[in-house]
Amino acid sequence: MISWLDRIDSALLHFFNGTLSNPIFDFIMPIITNQDYWAIPILLLVLGLIFKGGKRGKITAALLIIAVGASDAIAAQLIKPWVERLRPSHALIDSINLLVSKGGKYSFVSNHAANMFCAAAVLTYFYSKWKKVLYTLAVIVAFSRVYTGVHYPGDVIFGGLFGYGMAWLIISLWVVVKMREIKRGQTWVFYE
User: Is 113 inside a domain boundary?
Assistant: First the structure.
């Protein structure tokens, strides 16, 4: 069963990385997948939430930092070393179109996908009008990981599911805290 799924994953990788290859995506996808380009916009988003978002923004920023931090750490430090699935950039170097550096040794699950879907879930919990934009962005980043040759499609699918689940775990814990604080008569948990 696993070898069958592995063959499908490899076939899909070759389709997205090879068959769909074109000069426009070859230029854009390495930019989208490069986390260095995301650092300043993410920092501005968090600072904007903290300083311009009122109480809702501060709570959102705190949960965002906790959820994405946990998602990133668990994916990188626990799941990847446990599963030990080699990245396509390490295992299939002669048969893929590698558009970025090889990356770390292991690929399952994709931290980029996990973190983007985690962030999208937290942000849309508090700001639902941005749902389509945020999830579209998460899908594009996840796709860029496959297109550039550093992840299999299964890595980004399960990374996205893991990040989404991690977000809802943190959101659920927030709701428990909020309910307990309301019962205690605390008002700091209210926003708008």
Answer: yes
Q: Contact at 8 Å (CB) between 58 and 122?
A: no
What is the per-residue pLDDT for 164? 98
CB 156 within 8 A of CB 110: yes
Q: Say if 26 falls within a structural domain.
A: yes
What six digits make up the tokens of 102?
């090889």
What pLDDT sits at residue 2? 62
Instruction: Domain count for the chain, please give it.
Output: 1
Residue 188 has what pLDDT? 82
CATH number at residue 179: 1.20.144
Cα distance between residue 120 and residue 124, in whole Å: 6
Question: Do residues 149 and 21 make contact, with C-beta atoms less than 8 angstroms apart?
Answer: no
Give the closest residue to 121 by CA, choosing from 166, 158, 154. Answer: 166
| Enclosing domain of residue 159 | 2-183
Can you tell me whether residue 144 is helix, strand or coil? Answer: helix
